[in-house]
Write a structure and sequence with these properties.
The complex is a heterotrimer. Chain A is mainly α. Helices cover 75% and strands 0% of the residues of chain A. The longest helix of chain A has 36 residues. The radius of gyration of chain A is 23 Å and the shape is globular. Chain B is α+β, with helices and mostly antiparallel strands. Chain B folds into four domains: 152 residues, Periplasmic binding protein-like II (D-Maltodextrin-Binding Protein, domain 2, 3-Layer(aba) Sandwich); 102 residues, Dipeptide-binding Protein, domain 1 (Alpha-Beta Complex), CATH 3.90.76.10; 97 residues, no CATH class; 223 residues, Dipeptide-binding Protein, domain 3, CATH 3.10.105. In chain B, helix 4 packs across helix 5, helix 6 packs across helix 9 and helix 14 packs antiparallel against helix 16. The longest helix of chain B is centred in the N-terminal third of the chain and has 22 residues. Chain B is globular, with a radius of gyration of 28 Å. In chain B, 49% of the residues are buried. Chain C is mainly α. Chain C is 71% helix and 0% strand. The longest helix of chain C has 38 residues. The chains are: A mainly alpha, B alpha+beta, C mainly alpha. Chains in contact: A-B, A-C, B-C. The interface between A and B is large, with 70 and 79 residues.
Chain lengths: 306, 648, 360
C-alpha cells in the first residue's frame, strides 16, 4: 500500500512538473505587456529594466527562479496588483473557494446520488422522468444563466439572501447551489447508469431472492458498487470546484480563486497565472490520490489492477 | 458506505463552518460604495486608475485640493494661494502648521520632495512622470539622465550573466564614457562600435559584437553603478524643487503654466512619509538596484505590514486606511490627526468590490450600498431614460472630461497583408465625414453622452472653445474617396476595426454606416484588452478605438497626445505645424492668445488631417442615495468624502 | 410466527416485482427511445428551419433595424418595413458570405419570410432576433460538430495507438493525457486562444474571421479528445484480449490490419456515443467563452453569444425577457435533444462508459 502511494505521488509530481512547463511556455509566448496599466504606455527603458529585475528577459532563468520560489512556497509579486504578492492573493482567495467548492460538492453528492438512485429504481416512472428532466436541464443551461436566475429569484425578488458579496453565512447558499448544479446533474447521471448496471447483476438478484429487503439491497449493497464511478469523478471534480468558478464568482461577486485564472491570463500576469495553475494541479493530484485510496478501501479488487 | 459518506460530510461541514467563524463581524460603515474592480495600486507614484484616485484623494492631501463642485484648486496641505513670482515661473508654497500625518508627525516640505521624487525615479514611477518633466525646471534632464543610466546598467547586468543585449541597450552602452574608458587603447573597436551605433539597420550586428567583447563586465557594472549612485543626489538637486526649511517648498517651472495649481491636487504630487525608507531595496553600496532602478517594497501601501519596523501606511488626508482585503473591501476611518477630524460627519467608509455592475446596482436597489460611482450595465440607456424623465432623483448623469474616439493608423503602409489606405488624409477625412454621430449617440448608445465634434470636450475647460469640426457630408466623403483613388470603395481591401468587447454595439453600428455609404467592406476585430493595447500601441490596426480621460483642466491634456513621438499617440500622427502650434502655445502668457493657438492646432486634427475621429464625450451614470448629502456629481468624478454627511 | 413478520412468500413476491420493475421496465426503455426520437425530430426540424431560411438569414442577421425596432418585444406583425430588408438583400457587399450566393430569391417568397422577422423580438441594434437565432443555431451546432470530429479523429488515433503500442509508449502517451487533464480548462482555452490568434491570423493571410473560428475550434476541440482517447484505449485494451483478436494475431495479421478489420468496427459504438455527448459540451464551452467576451467574433451570432448578451437583459429595471428566453430556450432544446440521443446510443452500445465532467 505504501509503495503504491509513493508511486502515485511520484507520478503526481511528474504531472505537476509537466503542467508547470506547459503553462510557462504558453504564458511567456503570449503577446501583451504585464507591466502596462490603464491606457498609457510605459517607457521602453523602464520596461526593460523591470523585466531584467524580475529575470523575465531570460526565459530559462525565469523558469528556474519561479520554480525555486514555488518550492519554497513563495510565488513572487503580482504584476497587475502591484501592492500584493501572489501568496497574499492566493491566501485571500483560496479559503473562499475551498469553502464554496466543498459545500457545492457536498450538495452535489447529497442531492445527486439519491436522484440517480431514484431514477434507476423507478426507471420509466414519473419520478425518473422528473429527475432526468432536472438533470438534463442542469447540464443544458450555462452556469451564467442558472446563476443569474437564482440570484434574481431568491435575492432580488424573494429577498431571502443578500445580493452578492461575501462575509456572512447568508452569502453562502446561492453561489454554492449555482456551483453545484452541473455537478448534481453529472453525479445523478453517473449514479443512475451505475445503478442500472448493478441492479441487473447477479448478486442483487441473489440478495433479493434471499429475501433481503429491496430498500436495503438498493441503498446498501447496490449503491456501494454504483458509487465507484461517482467516486472517481469526484476527484477531479472536487479539485475543479474548489479552485473556484469564474462565472459563479462573477455573477455573485464572490472573491474566489476562479476569477484569477481568467483575469491573470487576460492581464498577462505570468506569476499569478503559474501560481494558480500550480495550486490547481496540486489539488487535483491530491484529490486523485485520495479517491484512489478510497477506491482501494471500498473495493479491494481494484487496488492491484490500477 | 453511507455511514462513511455521512462521516465525511459532517467533518467537512464542521470544518467549513469553523473556517467561516473566523470572520469577525464589524460595525456597518457610515457610507458604503462599490468599485467595479479592485484597487490596482495605492502607490500615488504608480496609480492611473480613477478608482485608485478615489481612495487616494481621501487618504492623502496634496499642496492643493480640488473644490468638489467647481473643480477649481483650493487649499490643501499648503496655504492658498501660494506666492507666485513676477514671471509666473516660481511658486512658493507654505505648508500649513496644522498639516499632520496619521501618526501625528508634522507634514514637511521634505515629505513632498520625497513623494515627488518617487514620481520621477525609474522603478517607482510609471504613467505620470511626464507631469514633472513637462513642467518642472530641470526634471526632464534628470529623468533622461536616469533613464540612460538604467539602460546602461540593465545592459551590463545582462552582459555580466552572459546574455545578449538589445540594440537600444548597446547604443546606450557605446556612448557611455566608462565603457569607452574600459575599451582603453582599443580605439579602433570603439570607433567601429560608435559608427555601428549611429546606423539604424544593423541592430543584430551591433548586439552580436558585444557578445564577442572580452571585458570584465562585472567590474564595469560596479564602477558605473557606484559612479551613478554618488552623482544622483547632486543631479537631483538641480531640479527646480527646493525646501529651504521645513515649511517652505519652492517650485520652479520651465514654462508658464496656468493649470499648475490644478496639478498639485493629483496623486503623483502627494507627499510621502519618511517611514517608507525602511522598505527601500538596495544593492550593497548603492541605494538603487543592479538595473539602476529605485525600488521600494511594493507592500508599503498596506495598513499593516510588519517588516523591518515599518509602521504600516501613514497618510496625511482626512481619512486613513484601516483595512484592505484584496478584491473585497477597503475600509477608511477618520485620520485622528487631521485638522478637522472632529468635524467630519462620515467617520467610516467602506469600498466594496463587485465585478459585476448589474449585481452592484441590484445591491444598491436593495439598500446594501449607498453610492455607485459608475454604473456600467448593459441597460445603461434605461438608466439614462430614468434620469431624463425625472423618475429617479438619485441617479445622475455626469458629463465627464473624456472623449471616445477612433484612431486611424496614419503611418503603416500595410496592415497584415492589406494595404492601409489611412496613410492618406483624404481617406481618413472621408471616413470621418460619413459617421452619423448623432445617431450613434442618441439611437445606438442612447445613454446621454454628448456628441463630439472635437477632441477636447466643449464648455468644460475654462476659456477654451474647441473648433466646430466636420459636419456629416456623405457626398463630400465619396468625392474625397474618389480623389484618393478609391471611388465607390473600389481598390480598398477589407478594413479592420479593432476594439474591445465593450464597444461591440458601437463598432457594429459604425461599420454598417461605412459599408452602406462608402461601399467598403469592414472586418470587425474585437480583441481582449491586453492584445488590443499591444496591437494599438504598435500600429497593427487600421481603425482602433481610443478613449482619453483628462488628467487636469486644460486642453493640452488632450492635445499633447497627438504630438509627434508622444507615448500615447497611437495613430502615429505627425504634423510639424501642429507640433509647432502646441509648443508655441506653451510659451504664451496671455490665456486668450494661448486658447486661440490651441484651437488653431485642434482644428488641424479635427477638420483637416483627421488622425482621430471623435465620436462622443462620455457621460457617466452614477447613483447616490438621497440620504447621502455632500456628494456632488462633477466632471472629473472627484469625490472627497470629508464633505459628505449621511442622514439617518 | 410473529405477526409482525411478513410472510416469506409475500416478501419474495414483492422483491421480484421490485426487481422486475427495475430490470424490465419495458415502457421506460421504449420511452427513453421516444425521447431520443423526439430529440432527433426537433433537431432535424431546427436544422431544416435554419438551412431553409439561410438565404435570408445570411443577409438579414446583421441588418440593423429602424429606431423604433430597437429592443422591440416579440410581435406577430413585422416591425421593420419590408423595404428595409430587401434593400439589404440587394446591396452586393453587405457581408462577405453573401457574395457567393445566388441572386435574391423571388420577392413574394421574401415577403412571406419577412412576416416572421419580429416573432422573437429585436435586439439592442434593432436586428431581428429570429434571424440571428437561425444562423446562430447552425454556428453553434457546427462548433459542436467540429469539436466532436476533432475528438473522434485525435482521440481514436491517440487511444488506439497507445493501447496497441503498449508498454513504455502507452505509459508516456497516457501520461500526456493526464497532464492535459491536469491543466485548468478555462485557463488553457484562454491561453490557447490568445497565443494562437496572432499566429493563425498571419497563417490565414489576415483573414481574421477564419483565424478566429479556427482558434475557437482548436481551443474547444483540443481538450475534448482527452476523454475519447481514454475511452478508446480502454476499449482497445479489453478488445485485444478477446479470443477473435488473439486468433487474428495467431493467424499472422499485422497490428494495422487487426486495428482496421477487428477493432475499428467494435469501436464505432462507444465512439459514436461519446461523440454525441461531446457536441453539447462544446456548445456549452462556447457559451462560456462568449460570456468571457472571447467567443465567436461579432457580428457572427452563436447561441452562447446571444445568451451571454441577453443575461443582463433581465434585471430590476427592465425586462427584455425575449433576449434571454429565446436563445436559452433553443440552447436547452438542442442540448436536451443531443443528450437524449447520446444517452440512448449509450444505452444501446455500452451502458458502462463514462464521460468527462461538466464544464464550469
Amino acid at each position: 500500500m505504501i509503495a503504491r502511494i509513493i508511486r502515485r505521488l511520484l507520478a503526481g509530481v511528474v504531472t505537476i512538473a509537466c503542467i508547470y512547463t506547459v503553462t510557462f511556455v504558453m504564458v511567456v509566448s503570449l503577446p501583451g505587456n504585464p507591466f502596462e496599466q490603464g491606457g498609457r504606455h510605459l517607457s521602453v527603458e523602464v520596461e526593460q529594466a523591470l523585466r531584467a529585475r524580475y529575470h523575465m528577459d531570460n526565459n530559462w532563468l525565469y523558469f528556474w527562479e519561479f520554480l525555486q520560489g514555488a518550492l519554497r512556497l513563495d510565488f513572487g509579486p503580482a504584476f497587475t496588483y502591484n501592492d500584493w504578492t501572489c501568496n497574499q492573493i492566493l491566501a485571500s482567495a483560496l479559503p473562499v473557494s475551498l469553502l464554496l467548492g466543498l459545500l457545492a460538492m457536498l450538495i452535489a453528492v447529497m442531492v445527486g446520488v439519491p436522484l440517480g438512485v431514484l431514477g434507476a429504481v423507478k426507471r420509466g416512472g414519473w419520478l425518473d422522468a422528473a429527475t432526468s428532466g432536472f438533470v438534463l436541464l442542469g447540464v443544458s443551461l450555462p452556469t451564467f444563466v442558472t446563476g443569474s436566475a437564482l440570484l434574481t429569484v431568491f435575492a432580488v425578488y424573494l429577498k431571502i439572501f443578500p445580493i452578492g458579496g461575501w462575509g456572512t453565512l447568508a452569502h453562502l447558499p446561492l453561489p454554492a447551489i449555482a456551483l453545484s448544479i452541473p455537478f448534481i446533474a453529472y453525479i445523478a447521471r453517473l449514479t443512475r447508469v451505475g445503478m442500472l448496471d448493478v441492479l441487473g447483476s447477479d448478486f442483487v438478484r441473489t440478495a433479493l431472492a434471499k429475501g433481503v429487503h429491496p430498500r436495503t439491497v438498493v441503498w446498501k449493497h447496490a449503491l456501494k458498487v454504483a458509487f465507484l464511478p461517482v467516486l472517481s469523478f469526484l476527484g477531479p471534480a472536487t479539485a475543479q470546484a474548489m479552485t473556484g468558478s469564474f462565472v459563479v464568482e462573477k455573477v455573485f461577486g464572490v472573491p474566489g480563486l476562479g476569477q484569477h485564472f481568467v483575469n491573470a491570463a487576460l492581464n498577462r500576469d505570468s506569476g499569478l497565472v503559474m501560481s494558480t495553475v500550480l495550486v490547481f494541479s496540486t489539488l487535483l493530484v491530491a484529490f486523485n490520490l485520495v479517491v484512489d485510496l478510497l477506491y482501494a478501501w471500498i473495493d479491494p479488487r481494484v487496488s492491484e489492477s490500477v | 458506505m453511507m455511514r462513511l459518506v455521512w462521516l465525511v460530510c459532517a467533518t467537512v461541514l464542521v470544518g467549513t463552518l469553523s473556517v467561516y467563524s473566523i470572520q469577525s463581524h464589524e460595525p456597518k460603515a457610515d457610507l458604503t460604495y462599490v468599485n467595479p474592480s479592485g484597487i490596482h495600486t495605492l502607490d500615488p507614484a504608480r496609480m492611473s486608475w480613477l478608482q485608485d484616485f478615489r481612495i487616494a484623494l481621501n487618504i492623502w492631501e496634496g499642496l492643493t485640493s480640488l473644490d468638489p463642485e467647481t473643480l477649481q484648486p483650493m487649499e490643501g496641505a499648503a496655504r492658498f494661494p501660494p506666492a507666485v513670482s513676477e514671471n509666473g515661473l516660481t511658486f512658493t508654497f507654505t505648508i500649513r502648521p496644522d498639516a499632520r500625518w496619521s501618526n501625528g508627525d508634522r507634514v514637511m516640505a521634505k515629505d513632498f520632495i520625497r513623494g515627488w521624487r518617487r514620481g520621477m525615479e525609474p522603478g517607482c514611477a510609471t504613467d505620470y512622470t511626464f507631469l514633472f518633466t513637462d513642467h518642472i525646471a530641470g526634471a526632464k534632464e534628470y529623468v533622461t539622465w536616469r533613464r540612460e543610466a538604467v539602460v546602461v546598467l540593465t545592459a551590463l547586468s545582462r552582459l555580466k550573466e552572459g546574455w545578449e543585449i538589445t540594440a537600444r541597450q548597446a547604443r546606450g552602452l557605446v556612448l557611455h564614457e566608462a565603457f569607452q574608458r574600459a575599451l582603453g587603447s582599443n580605439t579602433d573597436l570603439a570607433h567601429d562600435l560608435e559608427h555601428d551605433a549611429g546606423g539604424q539597420d544593423n541592430e543584430g550586428v551591433l548586439a552580436a559584437k558585444f557578445g564577442r567583447l572580452n571585458l570584465d563586465w562585472s567590474a564595469l557594472h560596479e564602477e558605473i553603478l557606484d559612479e551613478h549612485a554618488t552623482r544622483m543626489e547632486e543631479r537631483f538637486a538641480r531640479i527646480g524643487i527646493d525646501a529651504p526649511d521645513d515649511d517652505t517648498l519652492i517650485v520652479r517651472l520651465n514654462h508658464h503654466c496656468t493649470y499648475f495649481l490644478d496639478l498639485m491636487a493629483l496623486p503623483v504630487f502627494y507627499p510621502c512619509h519618511r517611514s517608507i525608507e525602511l522598505l527601500r531595496e538596495r544593492e550593497p553600496g548603492a541605494p538603487i538596484t543592479a538595473q539602476g532602478l529605485v525600488v521600494y517594497d511594493p507592500q508599503w501601501t498596506k495598513p499593516k505590514y510588519p517588516r523591518n519596523g515599518y509602521p504600516g501606511l501613514i497618510t496625511n488626508g482626512a481619512y486613513r486606511m484601516s483595512d484592505w482585503i484584496f478584491k473585497r473591501r477597503v475600509r477608511l476611518t477618520v485620520n485622528p490627526f487631521f485638522r478637522e477630524a472632529h468635524a467630519l460627519s462620515c467617520r467610516v467608509i467602506d469600498m466594496l468590490v463587485f465585478e459585476n455592475s448589474n449585481v452592484a446596482l441590484m445591491a444598491y436597489e436593495a439598500g446594501d450600498v449607498d453610492f455607485l460611482p459608475s454604473m456600467a450595465v448593459s441597460y445603461d440607456h434605461e438608466i439614462a431614460r430614468l434620469v431624463r424623465t425625472g423618475r429617479r432623483d438619485d441617479f445622475h448623469l455626469c458629463p465627464v472630461l473624456a472623449t471616445h474616439f477612433w484612431n486611424f493608423n496614419c503611418v503603416s503602409a500595410t496592415v497584415g497583408r492589406h494595404r492601409n489606405p489611412f496613410v492618406d488624409a483624404r481617406v481618413r477625412k472621408a471616413f470621418s465625414l460619413v459617421v452619423d454621430k448623432e445617431r450613434i449617440v442618441h439611437n445606438v448608445l442612447n445613454r446621454g453622452d454628448r456628441v463630439a465634434h472635437s477632441f477636447v470636450p466643449p464648455d468644460t475647460l475654462p476659456g477654451y472653445t474647441p473648433p466646430e469640426g466636420l459636419a456629416r457630408d456623405v457626398e463630400r466623403a465619396r468625392r474625397l474617396l474618389e480623389e484618393a483613388g478609391f471611388g465607390g470603395g473600389e481598390g480598398l481591401g477589407p478594413i479592420e476595426m479593432l476594439y474591445t468587447a465593450n464597444d461591440e454595439r458601437l463598432a457594429q453600428a459604425m461599420a454598417k454606416m461605412w459599408e452602406r455609404e462608402l461601399g467598403v467592406h469592414i472586418e470587425l476585430r474585437a480583441k481582449e484588452s491586453k492584445t488590443f493595447a499591444d496591437d494599438k500601441a504598435n500600429q497593427r490596426y487600421m481603425i482602433a478605438r481610443g478613449n482619453w480621460y483628462a488628467d487636469y483642466n486644460d486642453p493640452t491634456t488632450f492635445l499633447n497626445c497627438l504630438t509627434t513621438g508622444n507615448g500615447n499617440n497611437d495613430s502615429g500622427y505627425s504634423n510639424d505645424r501642429y507640433d509647432q502650434l502646441i509648443a508655441e502655445a506653451d510659451t504664451l502668457r496671455d490665456p486668450i492668445q494661448r486658447a486661440a493657438m490651441l484651437r488653431q492646432a485642434e482644428a488641424i486634427i479635427v477638420e483637416e488631417d483627421c488622425p482621430i475621429l471623435p465620436i462622443f464625450h462620455y457621460t457617466e451614470p452614477i447613483a447616490i442615495k438621497a440620504y447621502v448629502k455632500g456628494l456632488v456629481p462633477n466632471a472629473r468624478l472627484w469625490f472627497p468624502f470629508r464633505y459628505v454627511s449621511v442622514e439617518p | 410466527m410473529n405477526h409482525k413478520t411478513e410472510p416469506v412468500q409475500n416478501r419474495r413476491r414483492r422483491a421480484v416485482a421490485y426487481a422486475g420493475n427495475v430490470r424490465q421496465g419495458t415502457w421506460g426503455w421504449a420511452r427513453g427511445h421516444h425521447l431520443a426520437i423526439a430529440g432527433a425530430i426537433s433537431l432535424i426540424l431546427m436544422v431544416t428551419a435554419s438551412v431553409v431560411t439561410l438565404p435570408w438569414s445570411v443577409q438579414w442577421f446583421n441588418v440593423q433595424g429602424l429606431d423604433s425596432a430597437v429592443r422591440h418585444p416579440p410581435s406577430m406583425m413585422p416591425v421593420v418595413a419590408f423595404e428595409h430588408y430587401s434593400a439589404a438583400s440587394a446591396t452586393p457587399k453587405t457581408s462577405d458570405r453573401s457574395r457567393g450566393l445566388k441572386p435574391a430569391p423571388r420577392e413574394e417568397l421574401t415577403r412571406f419570410v419577412h412576416r416572421a422577422t419580429s416573432w422573437c423580438g429585436h435586439d439592442d441594434l434593432g436586428r431581428s432576433l429570429l434571424f440571428r437565432l437561425l444562423p446562430a443555431f447552425l454556428v453553434s451546432l457546427a462548433i459542436g460538430a467540429v469539436a466532436a470530429l476533432m475528438a473522434v479523429g485525435i482521440g481514436v488515433a491517440w487511444g488506439a495507438a497507445a493501447a496497441l503500442a503498449g508498454g513504455r509508449v502507452d505509459l508516456v502517451m497516457m501520461r500526456i493525457v493526464d497532464v492535459l487533464y491536469g491543466l485548468p480548462y478555462v485557463l488553457m482555452v484562454i491561453l490557447l486562444k490568445m497565443a494562437l490568434t496572432p499566429w493563425l491570423t498571419s497563417l490565414f493571410g489576415g483573414h481574421s474571421l477564419y483565424a478566429d473560428l479556427a482558434v475557437l475550434l482548436i481551443a474547444i476541440g483540443g481538450v475534448s479528445w482527452l476523454t475519447m482517447a481514454r475511452v478508446v484505449r480502454g476499449q482497445v485494451l479489453s478488445l485485444r484480449a478477446e479470443p477473435f483478436v488473439e486468433a487474428a494475431r495467431a493467424a499472422g495479421a499485422g497490428p494495422f490490419h487487426i486495428f482496421r478489420r477487428h477493432l475499428l468496427p467494435n469501436l464505432i459504438g462507444p465512439v459514436t456515443t461519446y461523440a454525441t455527448l461531446v457536441v453539447p459540451q462544446a456548445m456549452l464551452q462556447e457559451s462560456f467563452l462568449s460570456f468571457l467576451g472571447i467567443g465567436v467574433q461579432a457580428p457572427t451570432p452563436s447561441l452562447g453569444r446571444l445568451a451571454a448578451d441577453g443575461v443582463e437583459a433581465v434585471n430590476t429595471f427592465v425586462g427584455y425577457w425575449w433576449l434571454i428566453v429565446f436563445p436559452c430556450g433553443i440552447l436547452v432544446v438542442t442540448l436536451l435533444a443531443l443528450n437524449f440521443i447520446g444517452d440512448s446510443l449509450r444505452d444501446a452500445f455500452d451502458p458502462k462508459s463514462r464521460v468527462h465532467g461538466p464544464a464550469l
